[in-house]
Design brief:
Number of strands: 16
Mean pLDDT: 93
CATH superfamily of the largest domain: Aldolase class I
Number of domains: 2
CATH class of the largest domain: Alpha Beta
Structural class: alpha/beta
Radius of gyration: 21 Å
Largest sheet: 6 strands, parallel
Strand content: 15-25%
Shape: globular
Length: 440
């Protein structure tokens, strides 16, 4: 079969990513004043990759003998099947694309975690829904065009395929029609996203969408398979830096240590970035990861007020311990990006101001402030369904207030975003630290 992966995006002045935020996506609209606008521009021109589940699906289909193409727009042409990666941040644009392709007589399969939560608009547009992780459904896919024409409205894999048995994501196919723009995260080196583990068991699933995509149970690829993929992209595409998109990298200490051993034994000289929880990066593990190539860690601090975190059911460790672990990572040479959220249910101007001050105190290599968003499909959404203030899902960018907050207005939230990013990146301490890191 001839298959088109149609990965469409709305035209906005900021970067839109469908891969972040558990596959729901985010749009990096950091604020309205000078420094947030500069950050927005840097992200727009310097960061871009499609959702990993779509690239994995392309690899599965190719491995099964099908011809696969990737595009950001539909220009006509004959295909036996169109895969439409879905998200909340490009929802309305995706619906229009589904209608257009269906009118051309091509079956459209809507894939990804968002369509699993919000299927009806895609069904109304003429698409059918692939439930669960789509690469599982397309693993060893042997259907004919006639078989595909009879699918719907819902289909899914009979079983969860072992992660080690999945074909590599087809980055070579994707990169034929889009330019890789990930060097900003790897300080100039050619980089690609990849996965070592899937799933997140933490209690922030109350408002976080990652478990909707990958479940609460952690599934791991073997260290040997992870390193083999890194070597494959290093050999074939010249990639020397990897962005691990695991919800919580290093959650399994034994598995992580084994990965370090296998990577070291391979002789492969690469760098990598991970996102994790600070409780999972003890001093010796951080050092071991650095020794084999770890250079940047993303960590969610979220808020500097314990009561705000407790109310949101956010699992965390003491702020003093978070600060100590960040300093230890920096001491061994790891860059740290801290992430914070304004507008939690019990947030006030004062608690948000406290969060900005704590971020400035930490003064890590990078920092970002976003906005609490009750997402459809999460447990907390039921509390906010009647208080949502927008009718467009593309407004759920994680940088806009989309519900009636008891203490904060939309304007106050945007002002906090401006203040947080402006104060952080104009701080002389940060400037000096950043320049030193450039020449380290």
């Amino acid at each position: 079969m001839k298959v088109l992966i149609l990965d469409v995006y709305p035209d906005r002045p900021y970067r839109i990513s469908k891969d972040t935020n558990g596959g729901y996506g985010t749009a990096n609209d950091y604020g309205d004043t000078l420094i947030p606008r500069m950050l927005r521009f840097v992200a727009k021109v310097g960061l871009d990759w499609p959702p990993l589940y779509s690239v994995y699906s392309a690899g599965a289909l190719r491995d099964a003998g099908h011809e696969v193409e990737y595009s950001r727009k539909y220009d006509g042409g004959e295909y036996d099947l169109c895969l439409l990666p879905t998200s909340i941040v490009a929802h309305e644009t995706e619906i229009e694309a589904a209608r257009e392709v269906c009118k051309a007589g091509i079956p459209v399969a809507a894939i990804g975690p968002f369509v699993n939560t919000m299927p009806q608009p895609y069904l109304d547009a003429g698409a059918f829904i692939v439930r669960g992780e789509p690469e599982m459904f397309f693993h060893k896919f042997s259907m004919t065009p006639d078989d595909v024409a009879r699918l719907g409205p819902y289909c899914s894999s009979d079983k969860l395929v072992d992660l080690d048995d999945l074909a590599y994501p087809a980055w070579d196919i994707v990169l034929k029609n889009m330019k890789s723009k990930n060097r900003i995260l790897s300080f100039g080196k050619k980089s690609l996203p990849m996965l070592a583990t899937r799933g997140c068991p933490y209690s922030c699933a109350n408002y976080c969408v990652y478990p909707l995509q990958q479940g609460n149970k952690v599934r791991s690829r073997s260290p040997e398979k992870i390193v083999a993929e890194m070597k494959h992209w290093n050999d074939t595409l010249g990639v020397s830096s990897f962005i691990f998109r695991d919800p919580v990298f290093s959650i399994n200490r034994k598995h992580t240590m084994k990965f370090c051993d296998v990577l070291e034994e391979s002789g492969l000289k690469v760098q990598f970035l991970v996102e994790t929880h600070l409780k999972n990066v003890a001093d010796d593990l951080g050092q071991r990861l650095y020794d084999v190539g770890l250079r940047t860690v993303y960590v969610g601090i979220e808020s500097a007020t314990e009561e705000v975190m407790d109310d949101a059911k956010r699992f965390s460790i003491e702020l003093s311990e978070e600060k100590a672990r960040i300093r230890q990572l920096e001491k061994i040479g790891v860059n740290v990006k801290t992430m914070f959220i304004f507008g939690f249910p019990t947030d006030t101007l004062e608690t948000c101001r406290k969060t900005i001050d704590f971020a400035k105190e930490l003064c890590t290599t990078f920092s970002a402030f976003s906005v609490f968003t009750p997402y459809p499909g999460t447990p907390i959404f039921a509390e906010y369904a009647d208080r949502i203030t927008t009718s467009r899902y593309e407004d759920f960018t994680q940088w806009k207030l989309v519900f009636e907050h008891p203490k904060l207005s939309s304007r106050e939230i945007r002002t906090l975003l401006d203040s947080g990013h402006s104060e952080y990146y104009s701080n002389p301490r940060w400037m000096i630290k950043f320049i030193r890191n450039l020449f380290h």
